[in-house]
Every structure is written in structure tokens, then in C-alpha cells.
Amino acid sequence: MSNTLQPGPLPASMQLDDNGKLRHFLTIEGLSATLLTEILDVAESFSVVATQPVKKVPLLRGKTIFNLFFEPSTRTRTTFELAAKRLSADVMNMNISTSATSKGESLLDTLRNLEAMYSDMFVVRHADSGAAQLIARHVAPHVSVINAGDGRHAHPTQAMLDVFTIRRHKPDLTALRVAIVGDILHSRVARSQIHALNTLNTGEVRVIAPKTLLPENVEQLGVQVYHSMAQGLKDVDVVIMLRLQRERMTGALLPSEHEFFRLYGLDEAALAYAKPDAIVMHPGPANRGVEIASSVADGPRSVILEQVSNGLAIRMAVMSMCLGATGGGKG
Amino acid sequence: MNISIVNGHVVDPANGVDAVTSLFISEDRIVHVGATAPDGFVADQQLDAAGKLVIPGLIDLSARLGEPGFEYKADIDSESLAAVSAGITTLCCPPDTSPVIDAPAEIEFIEQRQEEVGLARIKVIAALTQGLKGSQLTEMAALKDAGCIGVSNVFAAFANGNVIRSALAYAASHDLTIFIHPEDLDLANGGCVHEGAVATRLGLPAMPEAAETAAIGYILPILKLTGARAHFCRLSTGEGMNMIRRARIDGLKVSADVCAHQLFLTEMDASDFNPLCHTRPPLRTQRDKEALRKGLTSNGIDAICSDHQPHELDAKLAPFAVTEPGISALETLLPLTLRLVEEGVLSRPQAVAQITCNPARILGLDDLGHLGAGATADLCIIDPDTEWECQPATFHSRGKNSPFAGWPFRGTVTHTFVGGELVYETNVSAP
């Protein structure tokens, strides 16, 4: 682990090795459409594995993967763990309370200790934007880092599983209008989704939210901005709802849950603005009655549970590609 | 001791000198500037400065020196050497040390340390409120007697607007300049980068331009009300600078500085989460950078300072938002300012004025910052043609946290005099 203050290369180039293959998976930004498509295709092959009686492949046998969760998570951590196990890797889960690492040096200290145990991959979730990149910059050359969510910055595997889910239902992304609704400002999921959808030439990406939940210059990410569901959902093929954390109500960003749901919640009436065959997505866990009505979350157009299953295939794909073992998923 | 510095190109903007001439120093004073020595002057030492620039010693309006309280980052020994090696002969130390400089004892401590080290002069900006807590005024008269050259609340909040009014009025009654760091803490909202496209991409907590402009807009009427003299520190926005320029036209006693890095870096430089570009105020937009550069010649900005903040390695080895803001900047102040001349932003005398006589005027130090007869003999000699590459690892400062690593610069300090004493000299054979 290097102790230098000088910054390394930009994230896009940092994620690839000299042969243009994936080494770290930190952010979607800067990755090519070809590479994203490769991830989706590898994930398709892995999704077959889950339906077989023996759900394991030996691709990562002998590899050691640490799940480093500096921020609580159940779903994401579980699917990463399961993905690693399906690939036959040894996996360790470390839930590291943020109080123990409130000083930044402890973060790198933790990693130095883990690296000494000859790990091959760190899957990192952290409350601070840029944490995964910081770690990737300082790990030994043979170690890969996968970002499982850093602050408000990126959650690239979530974005890939969302795109995977969309592609299964509506294969031609160039013909689609996708709307992302809710708390864009605080959402790493939204940022990664926007990059993934735009890289794959999605017809139109929209965000729908009040100004208090939109970051400055969000349109420069390549989205159309709407403040109303009636206009924003018109003719949309895919509706992605984001989780609204309850603490946002206390920060004067919103007057009340009631008003938010009335204006930006997805119920049957709001969904009627979208195309009749539009699908409904949510990265979970959903706040029913805050951003989405139960009737929609559990309704026929919801693909929310598929997203969870697809998450496993995407994470298997990314883990195996980062560790240079992409070949065998088809078995 | 009499010293003559002959044949140098003297740039002394306060006295309108920009020509090859000679300087004659007796004890700690400049006694004469001209082609020939004054009658009866016998030089004990003569220095041939042919081909070199001779300018007043730099006056840096803000440098954190690590003492007291942050000796693990830096100390007065290391930072004073860094200063004189870079031509800086006077440093201003803000009061946000530990303990806070809010009583004469802390000023005496710093003065004592300065005397022990004996390199650069250190001037203290004392706290405006006790403990920088924003409610109880400090004993400003006693602080002034102890030697402080101004007062500031740095970034700390005031309890309410009436405390601000009282603090400003009380400082004004003791003829103390108030050093204002314009940042509305509520609007800043813990932001660590400029609120704009880069912050949105990176998902970092962001500070809007309005954090600066709203703070300036709030304080200006109170300055008018109290008649206080204020210096605005580290402007980062073109709009904030314009507000101060208008206030100046309206007759308020205001001045403003910018730190050198705001004239060269923008929000884009932080776009790979480079913690070396984590500063407070944050690096702003290209438009702000251009506006601040223009302000140097259009009454918007009076001085360029380093805003030196040396940090230990660990302070910058963390995710961007939790790293400590600030740049180790003493050793890049002069090179960056000279670069403005190369880039055609400033004439050489204009550039020198921004780091010498202008800050001296802001501090009310009549005998510093210029090379006229009678002035204190603080000066530096620069070889203007030496090209070098910035390597923070070789800084004299203990802080190696500079985003300018690898930047090519032209011009190195060969000699620095403080009070007529040679305190720094480069080994001529060294690169």
C-alpha cells in the first residue's frame, strides 16, 4: 500500500488494466459502451447458474474476497456475499462501524491489515464519496476494488443490475424514455444509473424532483429535468423510483411526507401518465406510502424483485471480470 | 554593518522604481537607492546582483505555522525557514490556533518563538471574540498593545448580528482592521467543493457561491454602520469581489485578498477526488478564476497571499470530504505570482505590489513592503531565469500537501534579508 499524497490517474483509466480489461469497478463514468455491454452479457450467462441444481462455478476458487461495509447494508452485502460464494471464492464480511474510522487514516490502516492477509478483492461500501477510489489508489497492484456504494457518488453494480433488468424487458435502449424520480441530490444510485443509461445510448433520461432534491447543474449529466410527474412521466417506458430517507424531512428540504407523496409518489394515478407497458423499478428498500404505493410496488408492472435476483448475476459478472476469470459462466 | 547590493534590477512599486540600480543598507535600514553610494558610505559587504531582481521581502497575509497546538503539522522553525527560502519576510498568523490567540500571552508566545528562530517576522491577527466563540469580545486594546495587527473571527460564527455590530464598532474604536472570512456557515452547509457541475458528478457536499456573497452582503451594511475598516480574506468568487469593489466606491474602508491557488486552479482540479485540491473556500469555476485575475488590476483585489496550511500526511489520506482543507503554499506564493507576469496577467511591478507594498498597506506597516530610504531592509534577490519543477517533497515546510507538484516555474530566490541581515542564501552550485 503506497503512502503518497500525489493523485493517481483519473478514475476511468484507473479502472482498466493495460489491456483495457476491468481491474477495479468504481464508477460507470468513463467506461465504454462495449465494456458495459460485456458486463451485461457475462451477467446473462451467470443468471443461468442460479437456476441449476448446483449453483456454484469454480471460477474464483482459491481467491479471497473481503466485503468491507463501513455503512450498514443488508441487501447489497448479502448479494455480494452470495455472488462470491457462487463463484467459489472465500469471502469474509467485515462490518466496520464508522465511529471506529471517523479518522481517515484508520480506513487505510484497516486496509493495510487486510491486505496483509493476502486478499484479492475488496468490496467496499462507505459513507463518503470517493472512498472506493481512495482505496483503489492505495491497494497493492494485484488487489481489485469494487465499489458497493460511496457516499452520494456512485453505486455502479446497482446501476448495472438496473440496466440489466431494463434490457431484459425492453432490449432496445435507444428507443426508451427512462424517468428517475425522487431524491436525486443524495442518490449515488441515480448518478450511476444516469451514466450507465447515457453510455448505452438510452433514448432519453429524465429526472423528476423538486429543486430541493436536485443537485446544481444536474442537466450537465445528460438528463432532462422535470418538477412534475404529469409532465415528466408522459410517454415514459421505465419509471425508476428512488428511496427517500426519512431524515430528509427534517432538513427543510421538504415540507412533509404527505406532500411529497402527493406530488412525487408513484401510485396508480401517477403511473397512468407513463406508457401503458411501462415497468416500475426501485433499488430498495422501498418506503411504501412515502415514494411508492404498495399497489404499484407489488403490482403487475413492478420488476422490483427481479432487480434483486439480477443483482446476483451482475455482481458475479463484475467480480469474475475484475479477477480475470470471465470464461466459465456458461457451463 | 553596511551592505550594498549593486547592479540589480530593483522592482519597488511603492516608490515607482523598476530599473537597474543599487541599494545601500546600514544596520536594519535602507539608507539610499541609486547608482552611487551616499557620501561617507563604506560597504562592509558588497553583493553583485547583476542579472537578478531585487524586490521587497514578501508579506504574506495568511500562514498557519502549526504553533501553538498543531506542532504535529508544522512549527515556527520549519515554516519560517520555508518562508525566507521563498522570499517571504513577514508572515501573518491567524488566531485559530490551539489555544486560540485571544489574549496577550499567546501573542507574547509567538513573538518569543519568532525571536528564538530569528528568520521571518511574524505578525499576529488576534481573535475578535474570546475563544472564537462568537459572543464575548476579546480585550482588543490589550491585544493591540501586545502587538496584534488586526482581529478576526476566522470562520467561526457569531452569536447574532448585534455581536457583529459591537465587535466591529469596538475594533474600530481601537483602530484595528477586522479580517473577515466571508462564509455563511448555514449556506455553506458543510460543503467541501464548489456547488456546480463537478460537485454534482462527484456527489460531494457542496458550497454555493451564495455562501460567500450572502456573507459579504450581510456584513457590508454593518461596516457602514460602524465605520470599521475591514479586510476581506481569501475571496473565491467574482461576484463577491464585485460587491466589495462597489462598497469601496461607496466609500467604505474595505480591501480584499485572494490566495494564489484561486488564480490557477478551479473546481475541475478536484474532479478526480484529489484531496490536495480540498481548500476552504473551495476552488471555484473557470469564470471566477478569470474574474479574480482581472480584479488584480481593476481595484477588485489588493493582495495575493499564500493561505499556507501545512498538513501531516494523514490529514490528506482519507476520502475527500473528511480530509483537512488547505495547501502548503509558502513555497509556491512567489513562483505563482511571477507566473502571472509570464502569462501576461500582470506587469512585473503590479505582481510585486500584490505581495509586498499592498499587503503592507493593508496591515498599516509603513516601513515594510518597499525599498525607499528609511524602510526596513527586508528584501529578496531573485534569479529570474532559473527554471525548476515544483517538488513538494523538497519543501522546507513540513507540509508537503501541494497540488502544484510537477508544475514548471521560473525564478528562484537566491538571497533573503530580514532587517538588514542575510537570513537565507541558496547554494549557488545547487540546481
Give the name of the CATH architecture of the largest domain in chain A: 3-Layer(aba) Sandwich
What CATH architecture label of chain B applies? Answer: Alpha-Beta Barrel
Please give the radius of gyration of chain A in angstroms: 19 Å
Instruction: Quickly count the helices of chain B.
Output: 12
Oligomer: heterodimer
Helix content of chain A: 25-40%
Q: Rounded to an integer, what's the Rg of chain B over CA atoms?
A: 21 Å
What would the principal axes of the Cα set say about the shape of chain B? globular
Shape of chain A: globular
Q: Give me the secondary-structure category of chain B.
A: alpha/beta
What structural category characterises the helix and strand content of chain A? alpha/beta
Mean pLDDT reading of chain A: 90
What's the number of helices of chain A? 12
Q: CATH superfamily membership of chain B, which one?
A: Metal-dependent hydrolases
Strand content of chain A: 5-15%
Q: How many domains in all of chain B? A: 1
Rounded to the nearest angstrom, the distance between the terminal CA atoms of chain B is 30 Å
Q: Looking at this structure, what is the CATH superfamily of the largest domain in chain A?
A: Aspartate/ornithine carbamoyltransferase
Proportion of helical residues of chain B: 25-40%
**Chain pair sharing the greatest interface:** A-B, 35 and 31 residues
List the SSEs and their pairings.
The complex is a heterodimer of chains A (331) and B (431).
Chain A: H1 11-14, H2 33-49, E1 64-69, H3 75-86, E2 90-95, H4 104-115, E3 121-126, H5 131-138, E4 144-150, H6 156-169, E5 177-181, H7 188-199, E6 204-208, E7 224-226, H8 229-232, E8 238-241, H9 257-264, H10 268-271, E9 279-281, H11 294-297, H12 304-322
Parallel strand pairs in A: 1-2, 1-3, 3-4, 5-6, 5-8, 6-7, 8-9
Chain B: E1 2-12, E2 17-26, E3 29-34, E4 45-48, E5 53-56, E6 58-60, H1 76-85, E7 88-93, H2 104-117, E8 121-127, H3 140-146, E9 150-152, H4 161-173, E10 178-180, H5 185-188, E11 193-194, H6 197-202, E12 206-207, H7 209-226, E13 230-232, H8 238-249, E14 254-259, H9 286-295, E15 303-305, H10 330-342, H11 348-355, H12 357-363, E16 379-389, E17 408-418, E18 421-425
Parallel strand pairs in B: 1-4, 1-5, 6-7, 7-8, 8-9, 9-10, 10-13, 11-12, 13-14, 14-15
Antiparallel strand pairs in B: 1-2, 2-3, 5-16, 16-17, 17-18
Helix pairs in contact in B: 2-3, 4-7, 7-8, 10-11
